[in-house]
Design brief:
This protein is mainly β. It is 12% helix and 33% strand. The strands form four sheets. It has a five-stranded mixed sheet, with no helix packed on it. Strands 1-4-9-12 form a four-stranded parallel sheet, with no helix packed on it.
């Protein structure tokens, strides 16, 4: 609900089984687009976004241009993601930081095909 996926200026790839909570903003371009003078100092940033399979994006999170999230990443609610993170990362904060990675036991449980 109420999420925005802006893929106008670059490509967005969203993997399989990705959970996107309410009010998530995924945007491939950002900046002061109404002010050419502001753009001289703060140019519009443009770039692709890739969200791996089985990720979970928490409510009110924002994913900025040029970000890749590996598979099985969890993005905590209210997180501002402006950096890429590898598979099995749990991230949160503004800006996002690594909270922890999945344990081997957790990975095994998710990847077990039984």
């Amino acid at each position: 609900m109420n999420s925005i996926i802006n893929g106008f200026a670059a490509k967005i790839i969203i993997g399989e089984n990705v959970s996107i909570a309410q009010n998530v903003n995924i945007m491939v371009d950002s900046g002061p687009n109404a002010s050419p003078k502001m753009q001289r100092v703060f140019p519009i940033e443009k770039g692709p976004i890739k969200i791996g399979d089985n990720c979970w994006l928490g409510a009110n999170s924002i994913v900025m241009p040029n970000v890749t999230l590996g598979e099985f990443c969890i993005v905590a609610a209210n997180t501002y993601v402006n950096l890429s993170f590898p598979a099995f990362s749990i991230i949160g904060g503004s800006p996002a930081r690594l909270i922890r990675t999945f344990t081997e036991k957790e990975k095994e449980k998710m990847l077990n095909n039984d």
